[in-house]
Amino acid sequence: MTEDNKSTPGEPSEAKPAATRPAGASASAPPKPSLGRAMLDGIITGNSAVVTFLAILLALVVGGVLMILADQDVLDQYKYFTAAPGDALSASWSLVSDAYSAMFKGSIMNPDLFADGSLEDNFRPISETITQATPLIFGGLAVSIAFRTGLFNIGAQGQIIAGAVFASWIGFVVDLPPVIHLVFVILAGVIGGGLYAGIAGFLKARYGAHEVIVTIMLNHIAVLLLGWLLTTDTFRRGGQSQPIGKDANDNAVLPNLFGDNLRIHFGIILALLAAGIYWWLLNRSTLGFELRAVGSNPDAARTAGMSVARAQILAMVIAGAMAGLAGVSQVMSSTNPAHTLTPSIDAGIGFDAITVALLGRTKPLGTVLAALLFGALRAGGSVMQASANVSVDIVIVIQAVIVLFVAAPPLVRSIFRLRGAREGAEGGPLAAKETVGVQA
Amino acid sequence: MKLELRGITKRFGSLVANDHIDLTVEPGEIHCLLGENGAGKSTLMNVLYGLYEPTEGEIVVDGTPRKFRTAGDAIDAGIGMVHQHFMLVPVFTVAENVMLGHEETKPMGWLDRRRARKKVLDLVDEYGLKVDPDMLVEDLPVGLQQRVEILKALVRDAKVLILDEPTAVLTPQETEELFRVMRALRESGHSIVFITHKLKEVKAVADRITVIRRGKVVGTADPASSEKELASLMVGRPVKLVVDKTEAEPGAVRLEINDLTVLDGNGQAVVDRVDLRLREGEILGIAGVDGNGQSELTQAILGLRAPAAGSISLDGKDLAGMSPRQILGSGVGFVPEDRQHDGIVSDFTVAENLVLDMVTQAPFGKRGSIVPSAVRDNARERVEEFDIRTQTIESPAGTLSGGNQQKVVVARELSRPLRLFIASQPTRGVDVGAMEFIHKRIVAERDVGTPVIIVSTELDEVVALADRIAVMYRGRIVDIVPPTTSRGDLGLLMAGVLPGAEHADGAGATRADTAPAGPVEAKTNESDATPGEEDPA
User: Fold this and answer.
1) Where does the UniProt annotation place the signal sequence (chain B) (predicted)?
2) Are residue B418 and residue B329 in the same domain, yes or no?
3) Is B273 left (phi over 0), alpha (psi -120 to 50) or beta?
């Protein structure tokens, strides 16, 4: 293969043909993804770690601005902004920094306690973060695995409830020796969630019913079914009119890892295990290979002899099993001291799970990290409310803004003038942001 | 309008897709850009159309340098582009699609459909681009959809039209029609940049030819040059255009299809009472205009479509009722006609695509686990063996050029012991160099005794490869003839017309040796194929 010499005289650097191979510079578009898929693919593939980090940073900035806007005392300072800009700025700074440092103290560590606090005191914020993150990891994995198979699982809420109901029932209805009872409870949660999600998978595979619609409807069904179950004698705690379930046996409970004073519990071990299984399933198993193939090109998967229906059903069942574990954690862990079923047992985890999965780009490690971030926001948020007097709702806003920015990578890139954003785009969103406080 | 590209260079990271390309398009000429897949033709045109910014170089229109930041700038400068993948709204009518983006409006922002319609009709008359402005685009065949794309460019006063591999999706007849339109446009002073890697087409319409190889202009050629010259210029080495093969030595019957009928969603028979016998060590070509049941026939053999009636048996084993995985597992290799759609998973790496239908089997899968080293070794071997041009075996298959994607599919299907090999459009969108290679592999597969079925709408390909040709028309096998049959007769058969007894005589005279495997073996539905059934398809 020396033909290059003929056509390109005087270019000795061209000696190695292999180096100059234009390997498909014009990648053509894959066949017709649906609008929703295209959008989600964009979110998942369009974000580098940098963009995700910047999105979080921006969200914290937006959160800070909102804190200022919501605080009348600080806003009053801005009336004299031209006369004494220092006052307004320092009041804003102290408000925002107090809030965020309270959040930090509540979720990561408290420097004030570092010297003379006990080991437990120092570890408590992290313990809280991990405790909050545990069900989110399960939920995030449940959404991720379905997504990799091309299914948008909005039904984590319902699956969590199903898992919680099954787990709770096994928890109080039988009396088994220590470890064994817990194993049965966990299995019950897995089966409950798996079966419930399997309904959506089956309807999709067999009749083509769209999983988004079906899972949303199954969420409603689960919530209402739970409400009804808590009125029945089987589930409702005796002698009470409140819709509260029966207490689980002590043997059925996920044990705390470091004693009664720290809430961190065995669930996190299960969650990391689940993430590990998810990694193996996705990257190393033939089943995962098929799931991913069905997820990105069902036609090619079918032509290669895979059963699309089987993949869809299995993906939903596995997703539901993961979500069911979140249900187990909700009922049987330290976050639920009496270990009972309540009408709001899912605690909104089913929906945060979608955000976690997207933020974690449906990758195992990413999902764990995203869940930890949200766990930290949840754990820190309550401390922030208590000690800095900033509403815990700001946490929800921050979460929402993170998603907003993650959903629009080009926006983040253009704000930070990163490569990839179109050059010379509308000059300076940063400048605009700085004036927000002034006009108020 | 005179268009010049001066020293255009486009880099993607370390990859140089275009390297100092100079190109001049004179008014009123059909300028052909010839090059292999991945040579950088499409990149160059995307630069010209404002979709990519060139790393270096400038675009000069009528003597003034212009900068195209968006496709809109290029359109304003009088450049129109027809992409390989159409950019049409399927549920809109032709007229609506044509006016999309610069709608005619009446006061108060009302859409002026009538004026849009009239504009379309005017253009239709002017250039003979026959298309009904009121049809929904989704109801149009591909050839007509392409016309709508051309109309879209023309209605925006495009003086230079870029056609990116326009014939890749067309039937021979549609291609002829397109050439007629191109010539009409040239007469009216438009210039056309025609991107292709098909030599016949270049010779048929081009006024001037620029050959690109590996991102560089390697020469210009005259349409009078022979195909051989063009091919070697394009590939960079001498190329054989004829398939080198010995006479078939057919053995025992391996595949038997009896009375096979496949229905489409509306209950219409798309494969209609087909009988076929395929022997060991022979290639059966299935010719026919696209959409006459060829794809459905192959899909039925693979178990992707359930037959309504009839039987398919391979080596005496009934395939009906088996799942595609079982059929693949029993030794059927299958190259689907649409690789993007059915052949590869573009998000998957090249290595993963090379084991797509074998991942559950040893050595790639063991007890539910993938063996990554086996997958990697396999990929390295195939990439080497089939000269698949990819940066690494871990690159997503979607980043490969079309021809290399096709090589991935062919490599995968030929990398295991086969008892039947079915290839639909094995070289669609593939350049000459790769085509030569794929053809060689197919013949080699036949020579080890595998029965092979080739479905192709390219008559050249069928004639070059097949030992026998079955012509399909409206779901039926009209006739089975030897490859020496004249093009005229084959064309008639493809239109469903039996040329009477002529071909049998001709065949007998020229290919007496293979005649027993030919028409005699073929039980056709001659009684059913009514020559009088004339319907312009």
Assistant:
1) none
2) yes
3) left
Structural domains counted in chain A: 2
**Proportion of chain B above pLDDT 90, given as a percent:** 35
| The predicted structure's pLDDT at residue B402 | 78
For chain B, the domain total comes to: 2
Separation CA A106–CA A83 (nearest Å): 37
Same domain, A282 and A401: no
| Rounded Cα–Cα distance for residues A145 and A140 (Å) | 9
Give chain B positions within 8 Å (CB) of A285. 368-370
- Laid out side by side, the sheet with B64-66 consists of B15-25, B3-12, B56-61, B64-66
Whether residue B340 lies within 8 A of chain A, CB to CB, comes out as yes
Q: Is the peptide bond before A255 cis (omega within 30 degrees of 0)?
A: no
Cβ distance B219 to A7 less than 8 Å, yes or no, reads yes
CB contact at 8 A, A190 and A321:
yes
Strands B283-287 and B269-279: unpaired
Q: Which residues in B lie closer than 8 A to residue A5 (C-beta atoms)?
A: none
Neighbours of A9 (CB within 10 A): 9
CA distances from B14 to A17, A23, B54, B130 (A): 14, 11, 14, 46
Q: Are residues B373 and B441 in the same domain?
A: yes
Please identify which residue in the block is written with the tokens 């000269």: B387
Give residue-wise pLDDT tens across range A13-61.
333 333 333 333 333 334 455 656 665 666 666 557 788 888 889 999 9
- B359/A424: higher pLDDT: B359
Closest of B346, B266, B343, B331 to residue B301, by C-alpha: B331
Same domain, yes or no: A51 and A183: no
From the list A3, A17, A28, the residue facing B340 with the nearest CB is: A28
Does B443 reside within a domain?
yes
B453 falls within a domain:
yes
Amino acid at A167: A
Q: With residue A395 as reference, give the H or E element that holds it.
A: helix A393-406
> What residues in B contact A305, CB-CB < 8 Å?
323-329, 357
Q: Are A309 and A206 in contact (CB under 8 A)?
A: yes
B304 vs A7: CB contact, 8 Å cut-off? no
A300–B43 CB contact, under 8 Å: no
**Residue numbers in A near B37 (CB within 8 A):** 24
Residue in B70, B214, B361 to test binding to A, most A beta-carbons within 10 Å: B214
Range of the domain at A266: 132-370
pLDDT, tens only, A320-359: 999 999 999 999 999 998 899 999 999 999 999 999 998 8
SS3 A36: helix
Give helix A156-173 / helix A211-229 axis angle, nearest 10°: 30
A1, A28, A149, A302: which to substitute to probe chain B, counting the most B Cβ within 10 Å? Answer: A28
Chain-centre distance of CA A56, in angstroms?
Answer: 14
Q: Which of B92-96, B265-269, B280-284 has the highest mean pLDDT?
A: B280-284
- pLDDT digits 0-9 by tens, B331-360: 999 999 888 889 999 999 999 999 999 998
Does residue B415 contact residue B382 with C-beta atoms inside 8 Å? yes
Q: Looking at beta carbons, which residues of chain A come within 8 Å of B236?
A: 3-4, 7
Q: What is the pLDDT of residues B106-149, one digit of tens each?
A: 777 777 888 888 888 888 888 878 888 888 988 888 788 888 98
A101/A139 same-domain check: no
- Cα-based angle B336, B339, B342 (whole degrees, multiple of 5): 65
Q: Enumerate long-range contacts of A41-45, CB under 8 Å, 24 or more apart.
A: A42/A409, A43/A358, A43/A406, A43/A407, A43/A409, A44/A147, A44/A358, A44/A361, A44/A362, A45/A361
Q: Please tell me the distance from the alpha carbon of residue A436 to that of residue A413, in angstroms, as a whole number.
A: 21
Lookup: tokens for A197:
């999600």
User: Are B294 and B205 found together in one domain?
Assistant: no
